[in-house]
Design brief:
By secondary structure, the protein is α/β, with parallel strands linked by helices. Helix 3 packs across helix 13 and helix 6 (176-194) packs across helix 10 (315-325). It is built from 13 helices and 14 strands. The radius of gyration is 20 Å and the shape is globular. The longest helix is centred in the middle third of the chain and has 19 residues, at 176-194. Strand 7 and strand 8 form a beta hairpin.
Length: 417
Amino acid sequence: MSNVSIVGANNTKFGALVDVKDMISFKKKTDTHSFYDLIIDAGRGAIADSGLEAKDIDAVWIGSCSPSRFVNQEHVAPIAVGIDPSLRFKPMTRTEAACASSSVAIYDATYAIEAGRFRNVLVIGVEKMSLLDTPGVTAALAGSSYYPEEGGQGATFPSLFAELAKAYAAHYKFPENELRTMLAHVAALNYRNAAKNPLAHVQNGPATAEAILGLPDSGKGSNMMVAAPLRLHDCSLVSDGAAAVVLTRTDIARSTKKKVVEIAGIGHSAEYLPLSKREHKYVLEAGKDAVGKAFKEAGITVADVDIAEVHDCFTIAQLMLTEALGLSEDGKAGMDYMAGRFTADDDQTCVNLSGGLKAKGHPVGATGASMHALVYKQLMGEPIGLAPTKITPEIGVTFNVGGSAVTNAVSVLRRVQ
């Protein structure tokens, strides 16, 4: 168990924060909330929420996946000096781990506090994706795959997760229509949850699996095939946004606050980068390893988990992560979602109350920090959007992955009173 707690958090609005002038080509875009604005806004908000002042921050970490390709900016961390003049001369570092970039930033900051080097650390996750067109975004994200045989050969992340989906369906012998129905239930749950989240990218997605399954296969308003068996409503959106948390030693936090949220356990496990190297593509072996490490450090079992934010860049990922967490038996997550499990009304564990990446949005570098920020708010009794109706959450889990479930980052967060 670490001696580190979250004492403040902030999440910006997620969405396509651009003004599109050319509705035919979608290429003439004006930035309405820049990469730089997002970093400043998220950082200032988290510091204010913590009750500290900027001068109290000893160091800053920023997680960002591919800013050089999305906004032509490298050397990202020092942008945080713009939050407040008192941050000038403080150490600042950027981390990169694809979609898990800011989860890893939180871990590095945690280790630095545990080592005694720093007392209060600000961690920001950020990405500005929507200035690029779809081919540009696809090319930028391809760099997070194993480029020699994946991105460099035309593979995209929809196609890589489609490989996982096909392996999953084949192993558990799910016919195409049955898998499609399971995935539609996952998407619908996230749309319903996002409709209650004022920060979410999607506010009016189809709220039932039946509505999704009833959409045409082509044309306007369709649920077109993207990479079989994954369709449009199985895929997260191109989003902009940022989130931030302030970390400090738990003993310091408890001396000034009535309740805090500690980082009770961390599991960080890497898988082979090339998907071709994985023998069992129907299961997230490194994900299960990360879950085991985090739960062991926190001294919990899956039965203790009240809420979870899991990485659902694609609906198949939510099924597989739900199983890797142990919330469902292997091969049974789809049945559980179809049976109505994991909603805000669940009396055991609520999943993706934020709307998840599918509907809250997925500005890739911001995702890990956003998961931590939103679970922190839930555990503090200050939920953004939906809150559980039948349980008062005390333990929450964030399960973030980078790439094709290559970097697996699991955090157990526990409210301490």
